[in-house]
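BUG: 3D viewer hangs when loading the predicted structure for this chain

Environment: internal workstation, default settings.
Expected: structure renders.
Actual: progress bar stalls at 90%.

Input used:
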Amino acid sequence: MSIKPKYGYDILRGIKKIELRGFVGDIAPGDIVVLYLSSPVQAICGEFRVGRVVFGLEEARRFVDNYGDSGVSDEDWLYVIGKKRPMAIEVLNPIEYPVKVTLSDLRRLIPGFRPPLSYRSVKPWEELYNVITRIRRLSGLL
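Structure tokens produced before the viewer hung:
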């Protein structure tokens, strides 16, 4: 998942507990979301496990309102208003990797690599999957 550094660091440091998005495709409780922080950081910096996933603006508002200290700001809501299928993703177990993998590193390892504009799934046969597995192993997660 590509994310602005401000929001990504808030997630990784446990401040932001719900991420609002336009529809990103197949994402389910228990999935691991790897965070690529966009410019100026331009690096894979951490991950979180997906908790509950709620679809629809009103459902997301109720979810956030009932959550308590969600870390969701007015600025976050501006991002999803008007989206066809907004969603709220509960952030569980955020981990900031001790080693960041920069865009330059990624392009050296995977020629032609382009970070996702928003979100994409990574399949086990992709080289990116292998890179993420190595990062997770170095981070003591595997």
